[in-house]
Amino acid sequence: MEYKNEKRICQKCKKDFTIEADDFDYYEKISSSCGGKVPPPTWCPECRQQRRYAWRNERTLYRRNCDLCGKSTVTIYSPNKPFKVYCNSCWWGDGWDITSYGRDFDFSRPFFEQFSELQHEVPRMALLNKNSVNSEYTNHSADNKNVYLSFIVFDSENVMYSNWVVKSLDCMDCTYILEKGERLYETIDSRSCYQCQYSSFLKDCSNCYYCYDCHGCNECFMSSNLRNQSYVFKNKKYTREEYLKKMKDYDFSSFVVRQGLEKEFQDFVEQDVIHRYVISERNINSVGSVIYDCKNLTNCFDVDKGENCKYIFSGTDIKDCVDCYHFGFNTELCYECHACTRTSNCHFCHLCYDNMNLMYCDTCQNSQNLFGCVSVKKGEYMIFNKKYSKADYQALKEKIIEHMQKTGEYGEFFPPQIAPVYYNETRGSFYMPMTKEEVLEKGWQWEDNVPGTFGKETISSASIPDKIEDVPDDYLSEIFSCVKCSKNYNITRNELLFYRKEKIPFPRKCPDCRYKRRFNLRPVRKLWHRKCMCDGTKSSPQAKNHLNHSGPCQTEFETCYAPDRPEKVYCEKCYQQEVY
Question: Tell me: the pLDDT tens digits for 71-83?
Fold first, then answer.
């Protein structure tokens, strides 16, 4: 059947959106594996993504007792949440039977209403944290050692206060380090780098401080748009001796000095750096930003090694997926999913790892052929946690889908109203923030008891020594107050050792405020139509001449930089003239 683009009105925000012809082709493709025709979405892409955001508590951690063994455990579920929560040892253990929670489907009631009741009965995993050592305070992570208050960390060691870090060592306060980062501090969107600080979009770099968009560089300071350069100080090339002499003028262990450098770097990035209209490298026929080694992507953000995907946010090694968020590692043919990895042919699922052929499942692991299940591990042919024969499973599944089609539930992701976490705990509070009143008006939920103490500090920020070498060991037993939000925080021994080793001043902000700073520095997950800002002149003597045009460039594009932002945004051709 040949489809055409169709205009629709979003049932949530009431704005127009378009369902394109190839979208219908995809829905037709997955319908055969679902057991029922998948209808087009009734929400626009932005509202669909907000709905998935509302299910992801990534970094709001609590302590509560395991409902099986009674041990105090770290979890994403506050003590007042009406769920059974098991520590990871109990959840993965043999001390409970998932089939004991099985129930029949009631065709006189809506699916989501019954699913929510099942969620409130079946034990939930305290954290998604697999195969790790001494890494209690981390979530959405696996195969780590000595990881502390970090999230989405895989195959890494000695990582603190970071998120989305893969195959890295000795990193602190970093975001999106995709491979082989070592001895990094306050570094964002970088890969294969060593001993770099306060930098963004580095690749194959070492000993770079306050740098932006540099590849194959070492010993560079307050510089940008460099390729295979060494000893560059404020975008000017020097001999090794001259460079090291200039660097000696800065006492990096001083908080006052670092404050000045942070402000200088922020102004430098906003006023002097040339920004590529989107971050896109080694891609074919792909639209989005912060995408690498991809083919046939449409409106995707933070994707690595993706193919034939659309409306994807944060994914790696994925194929033939649409409307998914934070997933990957060899995942294909998934639709409307959140946090599903090493998964095939899964639709409308949340927090499911190592599965095949799942629909409308929550926190299921190492399973196949499940429908409407919660917390199933190593299960097969189950509906509402009840075991069936293959033939009975298929027949009942199709009958439930017909019921959901009549109620208008089929084809939509889980509603935020039944999310096991509340909106201000989730990624929605970062990417699409709302007030408590706005959240409650939608019928969604709000957590009033988020963790944090105030007014318990034992040392004032003003009395903290300027230089890290003057900070005494007994600070390990002190309590501090964040200069930005006033929340109390403390430090660990490994943290203090890292500061001393890397000559980093003692932090005056809490880990959450440090994270928010990095979050605000990353590209926005949205595209605007703009024109290239190049006026035909070189931004620096080292840049190449602009041969592709004379006078202002007329190229237009879709960019992740909003029109009111201060950065210089160039098209691909003009940008390439500026890297040197």
Answer: 999 999 999 999 9
Structure-token pair, residue 548: 């592709």
DSSP 507: P
pLDDT at 207 over 90: yes
Distance in angstroms between the alpha carbons of the first and the last residue of the chain = 51
Please give the Cα distance from 535 to 550 (Å, whole number). Answer: 8
Compute the distance between CA of residue 171 and CA of residue 195 in angstroms, rounded to an integer: 9
pTM of the shown model: 0.94
| Predicted local distance difference test score (pLDDT) of residue 26 | 93
CB 568 within 8 A of CB 578: no
pLDDT tens, residue by residue, 136-195: 999 999 999 999 999 999 999 999 999 999 999 999 999 999 889 999 999 999 999 999
- Distance between CA atoms of residues 151 and 148, nearest Å: 9
- Residue 409 · residue 399 · CB < 8 Å: no
For residues 318 and 308, is the Cβ–Cβ distance under 8 A? no
Q: What percent of the chain has pLDDT over 90?
A: 92
Token pair for residue 543? 């840049």
**Helix ranges (DSSP H) in 43-133:** 45-53, 88-92, 111-119
Q: Which string of DSSP letters, residue by residue, matches 235-287?
A: TEE--HHHHHHHHTT--TTBHHHHHHHHHHHHHHHHHT-EEESS-EES-EEEE
Tell me the C-alpha distance between 392 and 387, whole Å: 10
* Long-range contact set of residues 397-403: C-beta below 8 Å, sequence gap at least 24: 397/35, 397/359, 397/371, 398/35, 398/36, 399/107, 400/105, 400/107, 400/111, 400/371, 400/372, 401/34, 401/35, 401/36, 402/36, 403/107, 403/111
Quick: pLDDT tens for 18-36.
999 999 999 998 987 777 7
3-state secondary structure labels for all residues of 41-105: CCCCHHHHHHHHHCCCCCCCCEEEECCCCCCEEEECCCCCCCCCEECHHHHHCCCCCHHHHCCCC
- From the CB of residue 490, how many other CB atoms can be counted at a distance below 10 Å? 14
Dihedral angle at the C-alpha atoms of 266, 272, 277, 281, nearest 10 degrees? -80
Contacts by residues 200-205 (CB-CB < 8 Å, ≥ 24 positions apart): 200/269, 200/521, 201/279
Q: Residue 70, class by beta-carbon neighbours within 10 Å (0-12 exposed, 13-18 middle, 19+ buried)?
A: exposed
Q: Helix, strand, or coil here: 162? A: coil
Element (H, E) at 216: none
Distance from C-alpha of 387 to C-alpha of 380, rounded to nearest angstrom: 7
- Burial label for 456, CB within 10 Å (0-12, 13-18, 19+), is exposed
Residues 348-361, mean pLDDT to the nearest whole number? 96
